[in-house]
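Researcher: Quick test of sequence recovery. Tokens follow.
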């Protein structure tokens, strides 16, 4: 593992520590009134920062230069695993929390493709690898967040036992289409295909808002840890981290290499993308539905720490395969 990646890991923990310190020292006031400042940050991220990032990404993406083979080799096993894990979770008891299967799925599957992934790809695989990684990242959130949003909204609508099938479908479609993840994606795609482009002022404004996602969410992780701690979440966090850091990259390696015949830099980028620790969007998603946010926070911290070991193991394995 390169020194640059080590520095990125340390920077992540330093930012989380600042959020934890802010809560412990009550920089935002006491908790006597039951207020949780991390929820406010989560709402701001979900309603402003994330939509800006997603719309700008889809409005600017160059579809004609996508590495389609690498994208298929990565997303087919990842999406299949997402659906399998979600269905498995639906069979588990969740104490009347209909959003639990989808929120746990995003915690076990959604990786930190930007803050850790980009410097990792640049340092390890050079310009060619970075280009493939950025292409994957550009549709990573769009595909997985949209899929999980549809599933969670369907579960929530179905949880209302008095609702008819028509009402369930209608509610799911409405809540999915006007969702702060899906709507900016759809508008961005239409904007892109229409060839409108982005005015420099709008582009800069959206870029500024989108760049706030990572630091704000890392602070939010620290604040959530400060309020709730990790008590009762360690076992689940270790299990989900193992699935994210070990099982998921193993599946991508098998499908990409032996299924699609991928090798070289493209294979390494796909596997290491899958091997990344849980990303901050898991916490944003959990806070959106007020389900599993403590588990997501613990998993982000545990998997990020574990990545220092598992990344080295995957890189050693890939050196013999790719």
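Model:
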């Amino acid at each position: 593992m390169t020194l640059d990646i080590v520095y990125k890991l340390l920077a992540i923990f330093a930012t989380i520590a600042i959020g934890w310190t802010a809560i412990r020292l009550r920089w935002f006031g006491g908790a006597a009134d039951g207020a949780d400042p991390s929820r406010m940050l989560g709402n701001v991220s979900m309603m402003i920062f994330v939509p800006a990032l997603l719309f700008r990404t889809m409005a600017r993406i160059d579809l004609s230069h996508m590495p389609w083979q690498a994208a298929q080799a990565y997303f087919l096993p990842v999406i299949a695993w997402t659906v399998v894990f979600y269905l498995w979770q639906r069979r588990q008891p969740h104490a009347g929390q209909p959003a639990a299967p989808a929120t746990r799925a995003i915690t076990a599957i959604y990786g930190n493709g930007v803050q850790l992934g980009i410097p990792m790809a640049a340092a390890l695989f050079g310009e060619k690898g970075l280009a493939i990684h950025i292409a994957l990242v550009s549709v990573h959130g769009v595909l997985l967040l949209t899929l999980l949003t549809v599933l969670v909204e369907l579960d929530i609508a179905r949880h209302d036992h008095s609702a008819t099938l028509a009402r369930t479908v209608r509610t799911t479609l409405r809540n999915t289409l006007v969702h702060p993840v899906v709507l900016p994606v759809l508008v961005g795609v239409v904007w892109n295909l229409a060839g409108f482009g982005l005015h420099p002022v709008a582009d800069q404004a959206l870029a500024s808002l989108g760049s706030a996602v990572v630091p704000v969410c890392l602070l939010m992780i620290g604040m959530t840890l400060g309020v709730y701690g990790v008590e009762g979440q360690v076992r689940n966090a270790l299990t989900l981290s193992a699935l994210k850091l070990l099982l998921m990259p193993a599946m991508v390696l098998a499908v990409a290499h032996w299924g699609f015949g991928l090798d070289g830099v493209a294979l390494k980028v796909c596997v290491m993308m899958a091997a990344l620790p849980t990303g901050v969007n898991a916490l944003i998603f959990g806070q959106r539905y007020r389900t599993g946010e403590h588990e997501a926070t613990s998993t982000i911290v545990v998997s990020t720490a574990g990545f220092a070991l598992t990344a080295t193991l995957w890189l050693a394995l890939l050196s013999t395969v790719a």
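The chain has a mean pLDDT of 84.
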